[in-house]
Amino acid sequence: MFRSEKLYLSRIIITIYCFFTVFVLGYLVYNSFRSKQDVLTNTLGIPKEWSFDAYVDVFRIEGFHYNILSSVVILIGALVLLIFLSSMVAYGIGIYTFKYKQVVTVYFLLGLMFPVQLGIVPIFLIIKNLGLINSVWGVVLILGAGISVPVLLLTNFFANLPRSLYEAAKIDGAGEWTIFYRVMFPIASPIVVSLCIISSVGIWNNFFIPLITLQNDNVKTIPLAIMKYTGNIMLYIDKAMVTSVIATIPILILFFIFSEKVIESVASGGVKE
C-alpha cells in the first residue's frame, strides 16, 4: 500500500513539473511574437498585435545567423571528434587485455571528478599557441576531448559483447580496423546515437569554453549572443525572448524525435539476445 501511494505521489510531482516546464516554454514562445513595449506594459495580458519584428532584427541587424552557424559547426565537429576518439578508446579497453588496464579505466573515471574549469589556463595557452583563438575549431577540440563518460559507457558495452563475434571476424581474415569499423561499431550504434543526443545538449548550451576562446561577435555561439541581450534585459527583452526560443527549440525537437531510442538504448545497456 505504501509503495503504491509513493508511486502515485511521484507521478503527481512529475506531472506538475511537466506542466510548469511546458507553461514556461509556451510563455517564452508566446512573448517572442510581441513587441518590446507590449511585453513590458502588458506582460500577462492579451497582446494588442503579433509582431515578427524582433525575429527580423536579430537576423538582419544583429547577424544572429552567424551565431547559429558557429553553434552548429561546433556541435557537429565536437560530436564527430567525441565519438571517434571515445569509441576507439573504449573498444581497446573493453576488448583487449593488457597491463595497467585497470589504471587506464580509473584515469577516465577521474576525468568525471575534475571539471574543465580547473585546467582552463593551460588549455587556453595551448589553444592560443595553436592559433585557434576566435576560431570555432578551438572550441571543437576542447569539447570533443571530453570523452570520459562516452568511454565508460562504450567500454561496458564492448566488454559485454560475445567474444565469438570477434573470433568469427578474425577467422574470416578481417584486420583489427575492419573488425572495429565493420563489425563492432555498427553493433554499438544505439549507444552511439544515445551519446550523441545526450552530449549535444551540453555542447549546444556550453557557455564557459566559448566565453574564454571566442571574442569576436561573428564567431560567438548562441549562449554568448543571448548574454549580450540579457545583460540589459529591460532594453533588449524582445531580442532576448527570440534568441532564447531559437536556442531552446532545436534541442527540444531533437529529444522529442529520438527520446524513445535514447531510453531504449540506456535501458538495454548491452547486447540484446
TrEMBL record:
InterPro entries: MetI-like (IPR000515), MetI-like_sf (IPR035906). Keywords: Cell membrane, Membrane, Transmembrane, Transmembrane helix, Transport. Residues 68-258 form the ABC transmembrane type-1 domain. It is a multi-pass membrane protein. It is found in: Cell membrane. The keyword Protease does not apply. The chain crosses the membrane at residues 12-30, 68-94, 106-127, 139-159, 179-204, 233-258. PANTHER family: ABC TRANSPORTER PERMEASE PROTEIN MG189-RELATED-RELATED, SN-GLYCEROL-3-PHOSPHATE TRANSPORT SYSTEM PERMEASE PROTEIN UGPE. Belongs to the binding-protein-dependent transport system permease family. This is Carbohydrate ABC transporter permease. The lineage of its organism: Bacteria, Bacillati, Bacillota, Bacilli, Bacillales.
